[in-house]
Design a protein that fits this description.
Elements: H1 2-16, H2 31-38, H3 45-48, E1 60-63, E2 67-71, E3 77-80, H4 86-91, H5 99-102, E4 104-105, E5 113-114, E6 120-128, H6 130-133, H7 143-160, E7 167-174, E8 179-188, E9 190-196, H8 199-202, H9 206-209, E10 221-227, E11 241-242, E12 251-252, E13 261-266, H10 277-308, H11 310-339, H12 342-359, H13 363-366, H14 369-397, H15 399-416, H16 421-436, H17 441-451, H18 472-477, H19 483-492, H20 494-535, E14 550-555, E15 570-572, H21 573-579, H22 591-599, E16 613-618, E17 630-632, E18 638-645, E19 663-667, H23 668-678, H24 682-687, E20 690-691, H25 693-696
Parallel strand pairs: 12-20
Antiparallel strand pairs: 1-2, 1-6, 2-3, 3-10, 4-9, 5-9, 6-8, 7-8, 9-10, 10-11, 13-14, 13-17, 15-16, 16-19, 17-18, 18-19
Helix pairs in contact: 10-11, 10-12, 10-14, 10-17, 14-15, 14-20, 15-16, 15-19, 15-20
The structure holds arginine and glutamic acid (GLU).
């Protein structure tokens, strides 16, 4: 019996120990390298991250701070998701040139479209600076004292860290502030749009299929990095040249099958994997449902208006996608947490932790943590909900309220000091112009009527008829004159005088109380992380995502979403045709794609079974920010483009469960099929390096060239 138990433990360890986690690329040697190789990888830690030679990391760029992208040619060609380039594609679109609807392909370098403000950042090197950052920190310091000493310490390091003039440095906290790392980075600002499929391919299935498998979305777009004459970062100039990267990813035409190794290399944004059970319960049972309701109320109006008018559809495309995306994710998160009994499991884990504290004599030091979490969260929950609901109404959904909020901030600045006038006007003008670029007052009024009651405030529909904010010219007129006049103008406005007391309440009581109650939770979370690592030192700890470069790895795997149902890990073009609904706003299919399907005109992009693969699943532990991340095969070739997770597994941000958490990737062969056969942009295919690692089956192709820097 005992023997069986040990065997079983060993088995569980074997399976689960190799799943989940977002690891720091400079620290893969040892445990991660071994795990990856046991999953089928042939890569060494140095192939992935190396400071002295080019390595995979040199091909991975942080796309505009929110997504990931990768270099796929020696002329700086960049691949990311359609939904990551969506804002740029939208900004070049008009009723005459509807690139959202029809797609866009630059047939030569001259046609590639510049994008103001868009940037891509690469990681040059990563350094553990924990010792210097935490120097002088003692147990007896208050949280504020600790934080100010840490920022003093890290600022000093940043000032003197050696770097080239065109590079930047920054530090980031890891393990809830138990470790600090420094990053040397290079940021490119001349990024041009090269190509995007039509929405009916790039966003096929839209909201209905978002966060869902089986999936058939060709969620990709292409950009190009331009650099100056020395191949260094530069602002946009027509004289800039395509960037020559330190490394670019070859693309495998051999695809994947169930069980194949994959790793996803990118910039995951935020996770909270070490929360106490009480926090998971609060988030899924109290917090999420209220925010889901607000977004649902807004979407009801936005979706209807977008279907009525093409002009409104183009204006609200990005905004709608943003609102709908988290709305649906939270619903999935709640379902997954419930279905997997995550709260109960976390409680059981906490019992193990508490037992370990006892066994190790750490009770006095850490025994208070969990009971304290219970107490703090109980106190924190109502204000956390209230504050977030305000943000959902005043920032995420209702644009008139957002404009009055911005104006309120400027009024406060003017009351404090009338000299802030010029700066205030400039900022506010920019914000008004930003909103009005894609604004529809009728739609916004509908949103207001739907969401404001959910924030518990009475609605007054007349404000939309008596406000200057809903028209850009009249809104800007409010800002004319001296400080006193501006304040007077604002306060005479119907919408402004309606929202002012609500905003004042937010700043004076809601946000203040939130900050005060959140601070001890953050501090306790730091301590909990320390305690976990001390009490259970043999567990496998990866740092929560924090927008820095990470490696996650796993295998291609299907999953069972419900009783008696199993999802195969690969979807095919046949499935696109199965889902096809003519003229539907989500499931329409371009005629040309149907023709290619009918003719089976697949070129070199079909699988062994003669079908074109579209998407596949893996056990890689990803999150928001991993969109556009490359899925890399056992030999360092690009096989997929990460863009989503499955609904049942979106809870992986708090609770990764290898049974049902899967990331969704577009098969690179579908990307190439669309570029080549659908768009006819063969010049792009020509600049890529296409390989057959499985068919060649040998080492000879495998050795990547190692350039000395
Ligand atoms: N769910 C994916 C992500 O979190 C894709 C979002 C874009 N697609 C959409 N239908 N809104 O970003
Ligand atoms: N679509 C997400 C993004 O934009 C990635 C999917 C996820 O959250 O896993 O980053």
């Amino acid at each position: 019996m005992r023997f069986i138990k040990i065997l079983l433990l060993f088995f569980v360890f074997q399976v689960s120990a190799q799943q989940g986690g977002m690891w720091i690329p400079s620290l893969l040697e040892g445990m991660n390298e071994d795990e990856m190789q046991s999953l089928g990888s042939k890569l060494t830690a140095q192939d992935i991250y190396d400071v002295n030679n080019s390595s995979l990391k040199d091909a991975i760029g942080h796309f505009n701070g929110g997504c990931t992208s990768e270099v796929i040619s020696n002329k700086g060609l960049i691949l990311t998701n359609h939904h990551c380039g969506y804002g740029q594609i939208q900004s070049h679109s008009s009723l005459e040139n509807d690139y959202l609807k029809d797609g866009f392909w630059a047939m030569n370098l001259e046609d590639e479209l510049p994008n103001e403000g868009l940037y891509i950042e690469f990681i040059v090197s990563i350094h553990d600076v924990s010792e210097v950052a935490l120097k002088g920190i003692t147990e007896t310091m208050t949280e504020t004292e600790k934080q100010s000493l840490i920022s003093k310490n890290t600022n000093a390091v940043l000032k003197t860290w050696p770097k080239e003039s065109w590079q930047d440095v920054k530090t980031k906290a890891f393990y809830e502030g138990n470790q600090y790392f420094l990053f040397v980075t290079e940021r490119f600002d001349d990024i041009r749009l090269v190509g995007a499929p039509p929405t009916s391919i790039g966003k096929f299935g839209s909201d209905t299929d978002n966060w869902v498998f089986p999936r058939h979305t060709g969620d990709f777009s292409m950009f190009r990095i331009y650099a100056d004459a020395n191949n260094r970062p530069a602002k946009y100039s027509k004289d800039n040249k395509p960037y020559t990267p330190k490394h670019f990813l070859p693309i495998s035409l051999d695809g994947v099958e169930e069980g194949d190794f994959t790793m996803v290399f990118g910039f995951p944004g935020t996770t909270s994997e070490y929360l106490p059970a009480v926090a998971i319960e609060h988030i899924t049972k109290e917090f999420n449902p209220t925010n889901i309701a607000i977004r649902e109320a807004a979407l009801k109006v936005i979706d209807a208006k977008m279907k009525e008018s093409d002009a409104v559809r183009i204006k609200y495309a990005s905004k709608q996608a943003r609102i709908a995306n988290a709305w649906k994710k939270w619903i999935g998160e709640n379902l997954g947490i419930k279905k997997s009994n995550a709260v109960e499991k976390r409680r059981a884990f906490e019992a193990t932790f508490t037992k370990a504290l006892k066994e190790k004599g750490l009770e006095d030091k850490y025994g208070h943590i969990l009971p304290e979490f219970d107490k703090l969260y109980k106190d924190f929950a109502p204000i956390n909900i209230k504050r977030r609901n305000f943000i959902e109404v005043f920032f995420t959904t209702n644009e008139l309220m957002q404009m009055t909020f911005r104006a309120y901030q400027v009024e406060q600045a003017l009351v404090a000091n009338p000299d802030n006038l010029q700066r205030g006007k400039t900022i506010l003008t920019g914000q008004f112009e930003g909103i009005h670029k894609n604004y529809d007052a009728e739609l916004d009024k509908g949103v207001y009527l739907n969401v404001m009651p959910l924030y518990g405030k009475a609605v007054d529909v007349s404000i939309y008829d008596n406000t200057a904010f809903t028209n850009l010219d009249s809104a800007l007129k409010l800002l004319e004159g001296d400080a006193e006049t501006v304040i007077k103008n604002l306060n005479n406005d119907a919408a402004y005088s309606y929202s002012k007391p609500i905003i004042a309440e937010f700043f004076n009581t809601i946000d203040a109380e939130y900050q005060q109650k959140n601070a001890p939770i953050t501090a306790l979370q730091t301590k909990y992380m320390t305690a976990l690592m001390e009490a259970l030192p043999n567990a496998r700890y990866f740092p929560d995502a924090n927008g820095t470069l990470r490696v996650t790895y796993g295998q291609v795997r299907g999953y069972a979403p419900r009783d008696a149902v199993y999802y195969n890990p690969v979807s095919y073009l046949d499935g696109v045709i199965e889902k096809y609904i003519p003229d539907d706003y989500e499931f329409d299919v371009p005629q040309k794609l149907i023709d290619l399907y009918d003719a089976k005109d697949y070129g070199q992009y079909a699988d062994n079974n003669g079908k074109v693969p579209v998407c596949f699943l893996g056990t890689n532990h990803t999150t928001g920010g991993n969109s556009g991340s490359p899925a890399i095969d056992a030999e360092g070739n690009l096989v997929g483009l990460n863009f989503d997770r499955v609904w049942e597994g979106t809870m992986s941000d708090m609770n990764y469960d290898p049974e049902i958490c899967r990331n969704i990737m577009v098969d690179l062969r579908y990307v190439l099929f669309i570029v080549d056969k659908y768009a006819g942009a063969t010049h792009l295919i020509d600049e890529m390096t296409l390989v057959h690692p499985k068919k060649d089956g040998s080492k000879k192709k495998k050795k990547r060239k190692r350039k000395k820097k």
